[in-house]
Every structure is written in structure tokens, then in C-alpha cells.
Amino acid sequence: MLNHSADRTARLQRVIVVSLIGLALGFLVVVQLRSQAVVARTLAAQDDTSVALLINDLNRANNQLIQQAAALSQQETQLRQALTAGGADAQAISKELQTLRAVTGGVPVHGPGLQIRIMGPIMDFELQDLLNSLRTAGGEAFSLNGSRMIGSTPIVSQRNTLMIGGHAVSAPLVLLVIGDPEQLEPAADLSASSLQTRVQVDIQRKSDLTITEVISARPLIYAQLGR
Amino acid sequence: MTVLASVSLATFLVTGLAATQFRSQPLASSNRLARDEALRQSVNQLEDQNRALKARVQALQNEVKAREDESARRSSAVQQVKALLDEQRAIAGLTALHGPGLTIQLRDGVDPNDPADRSLGWTIHYQDLQDIVSLLWASGAEAVTVNGQRVVPTTSFHYAGVNILINNANRLTGPYTVTALGDPSTLANGVGDPDQLAELKSRNRIYRLGLSWLRSTRLSVPAYDATFLVKNAQPLG
Which pTM value belongs to this model? Predict the structure, then answer.
């Protein structure tokens, strides 16, 4: 009798546990579908053109991420092989250092790209738009009238004067951008088409541009490493 | 055992039914709606892939860093280069940072529903965010994020239709939070200067964009969630 009662209790406990698991699983499915629906609702408010443009940008970004992953994988293999052989690959580490210096504007660089001459004054937002388009199209290094520019270079208009990193620049503006000309040119053409209603813009492909100007790294005074 | 299986199946089905119903409601019958649904489904899939690829890139970055640390332990020459590399990583935004700074918040305002006002001044545009970021750099910011996305040397802001995108097609949606590390007073003075962000501040008064800023003694910014590929720009010499 006692055994029978214990059996029933154990069985009841199993039923409760299993129903709780089932409930939790069902709840998880609903939560997941709901969160997808929130994203879909945001997208649902958009026109097809916006969604198509977003797909285009996502495809491009994903391709770039695939290339980044391949490059990192190759780098890791190179470093690992040197370690396995009992040494250390100083060259691979130096190469990465040079890449980062090129990205942060710390070293002079050269390579193919475009020279864009803008024959009249433009506003800060017009230059920002041009730089945004060229960066999205793979622009790797920039200079304007002898000033190197990276993402943290302040670009502002003060009383109709264009200021780059605190320095006034005036027309004609000569923008040098290093990157794949095939990719850069359509982006430059598109930006130029809106500028050309006011000012003359001349775009030329160059097989080897040189940007000699560098940016001094801003020292970290307030920021510290780590989260 | 049969009872157990029945109970779990029934519970799962009951809760699952809600999901099925929830999901089946927006299904459309016409081709146009089906195409719209397919387009949006593509976005969801590509964004999932984007997240997975970033996670892969970050994992590989950690592996590379571990090999470099090991290499530095074996060679003093490598150790010196590694120290310079770590410094460059911090400058480039590949390292998480913390410190004092300023947080700026803003959001889309109220649509006036005024046929005479077609300016869309009540919405936040990518140019607004880029102007704030540019002002923060000019005010001495040492690191900046927008909605948690680190602004790095290659960052671009742009529209894809109505979507504001930053870095690797990260879609920004309001409310928007811009975080900057640096001297909180200098940063706040820069943003508070009436001559700066004048157009945005004017729209803030009209459309209630909720523009506000707050000094903090400790903020943190994440590292950039990808890396840099340089294929064309070669160092001189």
C-alpha cells in the first residue's frame, strides 16, 4: 500500500516535471517567433526599395566579413605553424602592425585609386556624404588638400568655411582616395552628380596615388583598456 | 510513459498553437504580398548570417591574439612589435575601453501630420548622428559608439532606403545613444555650445527629439566587432 502510494507520487512528480519542460519549450518557441515578428514589423513598415537596398548592403557587408574571416584564418595558420616549428613569426605580426597604421593614418601610403577635384566650395555634410559613399565602396586611405582623413577626423563648416581636423580648406578641393577604382568610381560618380548642380567635379582614375600626410595618434588620457 | 508523452506533447502543442496562429495571421494571398514577405525574409536571413560572421571574425581575432601572445613569450624581438601592435589596436578601436565621458540621447520626435510641413524634421537622420560624432571628436573624444557600435577609422554612416546603416550594415534604430569617452566637461561644453548642432537643436525644440546629454564618471565602450582589410593602400618605403 505504501509502495503503491510512493509509486503514484513519483509518477505524479514525473508528469509535473515533463509538463513544465513542455510548457517551457512551447514558451520559448512563442518568444522566438515574437522577437522575429518585432523585426519583421519594423521591416514591414518599409517600402520595397528600402528593403532591396538593405539586402544589397547586407550582401556586401557579409562578403567583406567572409574575406576578413579568410584573412584572419590564414594569419592564424601562419602564426601557429611558426610556433609548431619552435619559433615565432615576427613578419606576420609586423605586417598586421603596418595594416593598422595604414588604417589609422599613421604611415604614408600609396596605391591605386581616384583623384577627385571639386572646383568650388562645398559644405561639411556634402564632403561627409562623399566620404561615406567612398568608404562604403572600399576606400582605404583619404587626403584632402594635403590633410589625411580617417573616421575620427572632425569635418565641420564654420561660417561657410570647411574645416578638416581644425584646419580651414578652400576650393579647389583635391580629394585623393586609395582603393579599387572599379568599386570607387561608381560611388564617386553618384555623389558627384548631386554636387555637379552647383560645382564642377572632375574624377580621374589613378594607377598609383601617394598620400604622404600622416595623423598623429591621439593619446588615450581618460580612456583605459578593458570594459 | 504513455501518459508522460501525451502530457508533454499536449502542453507543447497548446503553447505552440499560439505561435502558429500568431505567425499565420500576416500571411498574404496575393503575389505582391508574398514577394514582400520573401524580401523581408531575405533581410532576416542575411542579418542572421551577418551576426554569425561577426562572431566568427571575433573568435578568429581571439585565436590570432592568443598565437601572438605565445609568439611574444618566445621572442623579445616579437615582444617589442607586439607592444606596438597592441597600442595600434587600441587606437584603431579593436580594444574595449572604459573611462569618464558623455552620453547623448535622442529619438524620433512627434510627426506633426502637417501637410505644409514635409521636412521630415521630426525624424533622426544619419547626418544628425554623424554631426554629433564629428563634434565629439572635435571636442576631444577618445572613443565613440553609436547604439553600441564603435566608430572606427573606416566607419561610414549612410542610408539604405529608410534604414540608417553603420559599419558592416548594422541597422540603427531609435532611441539613439551616442557614447564618448573623454573629459566630460569638455565634451559637454562642445555639445552645449549654441553654435554647434544648431539645426538639430532647433528641430529638437519644434519636434521634441528628446536631445539630452549626461556626464558620467565611468562609461564603457566595446571593441569594433569586425576587423580591417587593406588590399590597396600599401605603406611607402
Answer: 0.82
Beta-sheet pairing, A167-169 with A173-178: unpaired
Q: Calculate how close chain A gets to B193, using CA atoms only, in Å.
A: 13
Residues 115-174 of A with CB under 8 A from B: 124-125, 128, 131-133, 135-136, 138, 140-141, 150-156, 166
Does residue B19 carry a pLDDT above 60?
Answer: no
ipTM of the complex: 0.82
Same domain, A120 and A204: yes
For range A11-23, the mean pLDDT: 60
The CA distance from B184 to A120, in Å, is 38
**Chain B environment of A101 (Cβ under 8 Å):** 88, 235
Cα B96 → chain centroid:
14
| Residue B51, CA atoms < 13 Å, CB-side half-sphere | 6
> pLDDT tens-digit profile of B108-160?
998 888 888 888 899 999 999 999 999 999 999 999 999 999 999 999 999 98
Residues of B in contact with A49 (CB under 8 A): 161
The CATH number of B98-221 is: 3.30.70.1880
- DSSP conformation class of B145: E
Residues A131 and A166 in one domain: yes
